[in-house]
Amino acid sequence: MKVQVEEGTLWKRTLRIEIPPDRVNEEMEEVVKEFRNRLEIPGFRKGRAPLGIVQAQLGSGLDMEFLKRVVPRVYEEALREAKLEPICDPDFQDISFKRGEPLTFAATFEVRPQIEISGYKGLGLEKTEFELGEEDLDRTLEEVRKSNPDFVPVQREAREGDLVVIDFERLGRREDSQESKVQSYSVVLGSHTLLDEIENALVGASAEEEKKVKVALPADHPDKKSAGSSINFRIKVKEVKERKEAVLDDEFARRLGAAGGLEELRARIKLELDGKAIMRSQELLESSLFDELSSINSFDLPQSMVERMLAHILKKQDEGAPTEDQAKLKEELQPSVMRFIKRLIMIQQVARQENIQVTDEDMDKEISRIAEYQQMKPEEVKDRLQSEKELERLRDNLLERRVIDFLISQVNVKVVKKPLPKPEGN
Both 75 and 181 in a single domain? Predict the structure, then answer.
């Protein structure tokens, strides 16, 4: 077999492959033998017919079947011989095949960028450390107070914004046949927690009032058995409660689980804000690190890598969205996707250059740490990760963390103190 590698633009490669006639004949004979064992030809037991008769039986379809089986297999052999690792499916071209002559074809694909990452040793970076002030704590406490109002019982009809406590049950074909029932369910009217028909029916209802609501489910409803049909609910209103601004005191704090009162709640919030500030500081440092490395080590990306990740992201979005909306979203996502892929390639390349690895022992330690946190046995965590096909992702995450830690250990970091940024809108 002859293999010639041609380098195209960027990371595109083309393999031109030639299979000699004797190899072609051997491969053709194997294909015919395989069909002989499956075909029933009159006058012969299965698997006993002469190869010539089997070829005649298959006719022109034999050549197509031969190419469909042999070309991909030979392509894989050529990749190993040329020591290339494609990152996309090949585009087979220029296939030339006649019996008794060499089989020739070309396969074009893209390969993972092979680059040498430099410039990280002694690189100067700034690390922002955010300082938490009393006003930050006060502002966050006020936000917590506003987002956790009190609701007090009222003797009037329910309005939008009220909290209504209800019992409800889904009825079967007969109104007296019960399929499911929920008791003492709390819903804020206007929150769209329940189906709109139910929430709309509750507006104007009073405590102890009962209602029957008919809901028409759309044809694309997740419950396929009920999609496109109507279902009935019986609802009993137990309480109507009016929203009331909470008072920031010990009682409020205990309602949120801080047994020690307002002082404990404030300490918890400070701990949470400190943690977020540390994480944000690290995120900014890492972002600055890879922006600098990307500038120093400029390289273009294989288009297939970008397209594949964009397709994966868009698939998770609303598949029913109009084509023009998906095209707009794709355009908006492309810059961030390209930054992510470049970062990933640089991490992988630094790992190779510096021989940074994640061993099985490292994996076991991480699984044990996860198990301790989740109060599970390590083998249970490992089995779950295997069943969810997440083990390799865990290994990749560990490798990424090690590479980033290594890179930061190589740079010169200047710490800059700054106040904690105020949330947008404040």
Answer: no
Q: Residue 162 CB: number of other CB atoms within 10 A?
A: 22
Range of the domain at 344: 262-419
Q: What angle do CA 249, 252, 255 make, to 5 degrees?
A: 150
Write out the chain's pLDDT in tens, 426 residues: 899 999 888 789 999 999 999 888 888 777 777 766 666 565 566 655 565 665 655 556 677 888 888 899 999 999 999 999 898 899 999 999 887 889 999 999 999 888 899 999 999 999 999 999 999 999 999 999 999 999 999 999 999 999 999 998 888 754 444 457 889 999 999 999 888 899 999 999 999 999 999 888 777 777 777 777 888 889 999 999 999 999 999 999 999 999 999 999 999 999 999 999 999 999 999 999 999 999 999 998 988 889 989 988 888 765 555 666 778 888 899 999 999 999 999 999 999 999 999 999 999 999 999 999 999 999 999 999 999 889 999 999 999 999 999 999 999 999 999 998 877 655
Predicted TM-score (pTM) of this structure: 0.72
Measured between alpha carbons, how far is 266 from 332 in angstroms, rounded to an integer?
40
Same domain, 285 and 399: yes
210 contacts 236 by C-beta, under 8 angstroms: yes
Residues 235 and 311 in one domain: no
Distances (CA, A) of 157 to 184, 187, 188, 229: 18, 15, 14, 31
Question: In this structure, which amino acid lies at residue 66?
Answer: F
